[in-house]
Design brief:
Length: about 140
């Protein structure tokens, strides 16, 4: 596996979308029901822009290694990227096996792709996080 590139996107005016509230009794996680709509609105443009900088398109990606933020989040990825097929199958398997373990869950998806070792090709990792932000990484699996 080789790391090729990465990019971070921060969506301004979204502090109330995802994050943590610090309370006397500890941390309280904040998840807005608006997360899928933000993904649907931004992910295709952001992903295509990122890939274009690397001289690639969505058609060049063999593995989509996405953080499984929940069923509605996965549906938003599918709707926005319009790739057809079951490109999030491995992500769904990891979510079924382990659930959403926060943003680190994307590493479990990556591990599963490495263990499956199909054919060499580019992998696109994506994870959403507090702020609201999107982290993208391009890797080459060989």
């Amino acid at each position: 596996m080789a790391f090729v590139a990465s990019e971070s996107r921060l969506y301004y005016d979204t502090l109330d979308i995802m994050g943590w509230d610090f309370m006397d009794g500890g941390f309280k996680v904040v998840f807005s029901p608006g997360i899928p709509s933000i993904i649907a609105r931004h992910v295709k443009k952001d992903v295509c822009s990122f890939l274009e900088k690397q001289g690639l398109t969505l058609a060049d990606i063999a593995c989509f290694i996405f953080h499984p933020g929940g069923m509605k989040v996965l549906a938003a990825y599918e709707e926005a990227l319009e790739l057809g097929g079951n490109f999030l199958e491995t992500t769904r398997e990891v979510m079924a096996d382990y659930g959403n373990m926060s943003s680190t869950t994307v590493l479990y998806v990556l591990q599963r792709f490495i263990e499956q070792k199909k054919e060499p090709g580019y992998g696109l990792m994506a994870s959403m996080g507090p702020g609201f932000s999107c982290e993208l990484a391009l890797i080459y699996l060989n």
